[in-house]
UniProtKB/TrEMBL annotation:
The keyword NAD applies. This is Prephenate dehydrogenase. Pfam families: PDH_C, PDH_N. Residues 305-372 form the ACT domain. It catalyses: prephenate + NAD(+) = 3-(4-hydroxyphenyl)pyruvate + CO2 + NADH. It comes from Microterricola gilva. Belongs to the prephenate/arogenate dehydrogenase family. Its EC number is 1.3.1.12. Pathway: Amino-acid biosynthesis; L-tyrosine biosynthesis; (4-hydroxyphenyl)pyruvate from prephenate (NAD(+) route): step 1/1. Keywords: Amino-acid biosynthesis, Aromatic amino acid biosynthesis, NAD, Oxidoreductase, Tyrosine biosynthesis. Residues 20-297 form the Prephenate/arogenate dehydrogenase domain.
Length: 372
């Protein structure tokens, strides 16, 4: 279909699989990002939310227009908190009998079971979950490219046909995400391990900092910042998520507690026979586990790291990125650290190992300081 000018005045040339219109219910971070991504492809998007103000903000950002009576959506995306997702999905199924409905909540099994119990028409519903987000929520944090290259799970069930579910596949592909098919049970066990338990561990560790001496907190470097980054998440939202996925989260945490008990026992007497070996095996096991995490483009790949010292002045980080590009080296990842009271930041950049020597030489020649 022909693309319409966006809110910024540009005219996208992207082709779309969906024909639209797409109705989005709940226009926070995810809902607004979906709207922005679809509008970039010229797809008609209508926005609905319990807050008219939020709809106005999202609409002003270019994510779609406010919903109106007489709308006949092809697809409905429910992007509301988990504790009301099933209720809103059931309402949308009843109000729009010709539409396919999906939701983007981070739990899937409980929602499907609740809809079955309510007698909702789940032949037009299939849950999904984009593995993407940001630390800050709300429509102002929305981005059209939020889902590009990210996994997006479709939680299939037997009550919906492949033909009907294809609209959700089209949505995912139009937004540039990678479609992953799982059952609701597989999904909930999977996110318990890679998302929900890490949130709990991060929050509990960060809570140890509350009563820590200031002298200790001032020693914080990138390690503790990495481990506790998730602890800044919305507590109310996580109560809902963990409550809806309690069983698999509890199972993994119980196993994790056993791991901690073994570690604590070994540290209780580090000179006992086998104690140091046990500590080493646990640490090495972590090395093996982290090596399984997908690298860039979903490939298991380890990168070399360099630490570049960046003066705390406007434009210096942009200059570094630009010069790395001029040198012809692809930047795979970057992490920043800035200690209080120091006028230099540390940019830890990840690149392919074979580029380290050349990039080091070139950056030093351009006046950059390489730590270590």
């Amino acid at each position: 279909m022909a693309a319409e000018p966006s809110a910024q005045g540009t005219t996208p040339e992207l082709e779309s699989r969906l024909s639209g219109p797409v109705r989005i219910v709940g226009v926070g971070l995810l809902g607004t990002s979906i709207g922005l991504g679809l509008r970039a492809r010229g797809i008609e998007v209508v926005l609905a939310d319990a807050s008219p103000t939020v709809v106005s903000i999202s609409s002003d950002l270019g994510a779609g227009r406010p919903a109106a009576s007489g709308d006949r959506p092809q697809l409905i995306v429910v992007a509301v908190p988990p504790d009301v997702t099933a209720e809103i999905v059931a309402r949308e199924l009843a109000d729009f009998p010709d539409a396919i409905v999906t939701d983007v909540a981070s739990v899937k099994l409980q929602i499907l079971q609740t809809l079955r119990e309510r007698g909702a028409d789940i032949s037009r519903y299939i849950g999904s979950h984009p593995m993407a987000g940001r630390e800050r929520g709300g429509p102002l944090s929305g981005r059209a490219d939020l889902f590009v290259g990210r996994p997006w799970v479709v939680a299939a069930h037997d009550a919906i046909s492949y033909k009907r579910a294809s609209a959700i596949d089209d949505l995912i592909l139009d937004l540039g995400a990678t479609l992953v098919e799982m059952s609701p049970e597989e999904h909930d066990r999977g996110v318990a391990l890679i998302s929900h338990v890490p949130q709990v561990v991060s929050s509990l560790l960060a809570r140890r900092l509350v009563d820590a001496p200031s002298a200790a907190v001032n020693l914080a470097g990138q390690g503790v910042r990495d481990v506790t980054r998730l602890a800044a998440s919305d507590a109310e939202l996580w109560v809902q998520i963990l409550g809806a996925n309690a069983a698999p989260v509890r199972e993994i945490l119980a196993a994790y507690r056993e791991d901690l008990d073994r570690f604590i026992e070994a540290l209780g007497d580090v000179d006992a026979p086998g104690a140091r070996r046990r500590v080493a095996e646990e640490i090495a096991g972590g090395n093996t586990g982290v090596a399984r995490l997908p690298g860039k483009h979903g490939i298991d790949k380890r990168f070399a790291t360099m630490i570049v010292m960046v003066d705390d002045k406007p434009g210096q980080l942009a200059r570094l990125f630009n010069e790395i590009g001029e040198i012809g080296v692809n930047l795979e990842d970057v992490r920043l650290e800035h200690s209080p009271g120091v006028q230099v930041g540390l940019a830890e950049i990840s690149i392919v190992p074979e580029a380290v020597e050349r990039l080091t030489t070139e950056l030093v020649a351009r006046g950059w300081r390489i730590a270590g």
